[in-house]
Write a structure and sequence with these properties.
single chain, alpha+beta, 5-stranded antiparallel β-sheet, elongated
Amino acid sequence: MKKNNIKDDEISLKELILKIGEWWQYLWSKKWIIIVAGLIGGLLGFGYAYMKKPIYTATTTFVLESGEKGGGLGAYVGVASMMGIDLGGGGGGIFQGDNILELYKSRTMLEKTLFSSLDSASKQPLIERYVEVNQLRKGWEKKTELEDIRFNVDELKKPKLNEKSQRLRDSLIGKIVESIAKADLTVAKPDKKLSIIKVDVKSKDEIFAKRFNEELVNNVNEFYIQTKTKKSLDNVIILQRKTDSVRAVMNGAIYSAAVVADATPNLNPTRQVQRAAPVQRAQFSAETNKAVLGEMVKNLEMSKMSLMKETPLIQVVDQPVYPLQKERLGKAKGTALGGIIFGFLITLALLFRAAVKNIMRN
């Protein structure tokens, strides 16, 4: 049995070698077809490389260090809570971990960035520049309801249009945002162990890539800081308002005592009640408010310290500068790739055709 298996294997190997030789002879007989196809592919590859616009990449890298949760005031937070005062830092942390990476691709942030002006001297929004660069309006002109759609810098602040027009405009904005998020925007951490975040924006237009990158980073980081510190900031504002109110009452009480004393310069000794009662009442109010004010000022300073420690640190390391990094398919590379791809495809087609003929003949 083993000898028969070895013999069958030898026969199969021999047939395989013969078959490869037949295929090689067949392809050699069609060499000019393959060469011509390769030349055509090379010309097409050269034309594609010549016509294709370069892709510009604007890159911003920054360091993100989240603020200390609780602000290191754990010992004071409990005491302040017993007095009905919230110093912040006790709630769950929003945007913890890598959530800021997803925030960069949210529709709200991308849409806000798209409606930023191209530059300080121009009222053209970035979304109009995007439409112009990608020639989207050519496709819109085929539909009458899209012909007159234009975007302005203050578009989001304008009153809403009728339901149909608003729906069409929102649909177009949504498609543009989706396209940018999927194809043109990359947000990642180059090293997961570090707190460095890299934001890349790619575009056929160098100006759009740079401005969109700058505006997006600015909008997202500003929103991140505001949201991260909102609770503590609200606490500081409330405490500041209450402290100012108590201080005003205390100052008013001190002023009232002085006014009563000035109003009775030659007081009759038998009428001490006219001065003593109002003065003592004002002094008592001032002393009481002084004690309350001392506690509130202490709590206010603690709350400010908590706010400072919870505020995340965002330090830009690298910003996009002209000229931006340019990616372009070289003419030589395009010619070589086109020739190889077309030559490979015609070879496969010839082999498939020969195999079908062989099957039909048998």
